[in-house]
Write a structure and sequence with these properties.
Structural class: alpha/beta
Helix content: 25-40%
Mean pLDDT: 96
Order of helices and strands: EHEEHEHHEHEEHEEHEEHEHH
CATH architecture of the domain at 3-176 and 215-240: 3-Layer(aba) Sandwich
Shape: globular
CATH topology of the domain at 3-176 and 215-240: Rossmann fold
Number of helices: 10
Number of strands: 12
């Protein structure tokens, strides 16, 4: 079976992706510098003989070249992953997301890698008009994070055009699932709300709660990555659940699943956050056979069960 390198392997998506690859029979090399990933996410991985880990930074050209030697596929997940964090620190965001991606792609094309799958984001669409979002529509990145991810997409496209390497950029919409970090100022909405509501506390909604997101369960994102690597396709693809859910509806689903009746607290909207987000995933379905298999309510149930068992 092939050998894969997963950057950002100690992160939420990266650790799930490494598990999925191991389950499929891959040999997996993982790298992370623990800026946002955690050692706890590596515990189950390190029980596998086919998994190895190296602590390092993706901007380290020499180390990346060593790690990529003999690899068939690269799954580039490492990044500064937050809109608010990027507004607070645009320099670090740009350096890690842009320079890091360029370093990985350059080492991959020199190292005879078959395919590099790059993680991107629905944030590149910004507040562009029209729903659902289609890959070919005009982009309006509205934060340093979104702009850096647009750059990484374009880098991937350019490398595929100019070098003998296939690249696929996956525009993740709102990924959720077990092991997603609920703590800190930059935590995603679902794990943060789950942790609060399990403890009987009120979640905070920025704005009126009618903003919507297209949530996708992490197992479906893992499947999309593996399909993107193994299928003969290059370019940019939306990866989402295919259905928009408002934040108010999210609170309702969480209350129903937890058998609670907790009212949220509303505060002012955050700068840089987009109002609505929903994906057209027909291109991903046609190109790599992607189809989300986990409903939103089922994903919420499985995520809550994981939190309750911690």
């Amino acid at each position: 079976m092939p050998t894969a390198l997963v950057t950002g392997v100690a992160g939420f998506i990266g650790s799930h992706l490494a598990e999925g690859l191991l389950d499929r029979g891959y040999t997996v090399r993982g790298i992370d510098n623990f800026d946002s990933g955690t050692k706890a996410n590596l515990v189950s991985l390190e029980a596998h003989d086919a998994f190895s880990f190296t602590k390092m930074d993706v901007r380290d050209k020499t180390a990346i070249t060593e790690q990529i030697n003999g690899v068939d596929y690269v799954f580039h997940q490492a990044a500064v992953p937050s809109v608010p964090q990027s507004i607070e620190d645009p320099v670090t965001t740009t350096d890690i997301n842009c320079t890091g991606t360029a370093t990985v792609l350059d080492a991959a094309q020199k190292g005879d890698v078959d395919t590099v799958v790059v993680a991107s984001t629905c944030a590149v669409y910004g507040s562009s008009e029209g729903l659902p979002k289609i890959e070919s529509m005009e982009l309006q990145p509205e934060s340093p994070y979104a702009l850096s991810k647009y750059y990484t997409e374009q880098l991937a496209v350019q490398f595929s055009e100019h070098y003998d390497i296939d690249t696929v950029a996956l525009r993740y919409f709102n990924v959720f699932g077990p092991r997603q970090d609920p703590s800190g100022a930059y935590a995603a909405v679902i794990p943060k709300f789950i942790e609060l509501m399990i403890n009987g506390e009120q979640p905070v909604i920025f704005g009126d709660g009618e903003q919507s997101r297209d949530f996708v369960f992490v197992d479906d994102v893992v499947a999309a990555n593996i399909r993107a690597a193994e299928e003969d396709h290059t370019g940019v693809l939306n990866i989402a659940g295919g259905t928009a859910v408002t934040i108010n509806e999210l609170v309702t689903v969480l209350n129903n699943t937890l058998d609670r009746d907790i009212e949220p607290v509303h505060e002012d909207p955050r700068p840089g956050d987009i109002r609505h987000s929903a994906a057209d995933i027909s291109k991903a379905n046609k190109s790599i056979g992607f189809e989300p298999n986990t409903s939103f309510t089922e994903g919420i149930k499985r995520t809550i069960e994981w939190f309750q068992n911690q």
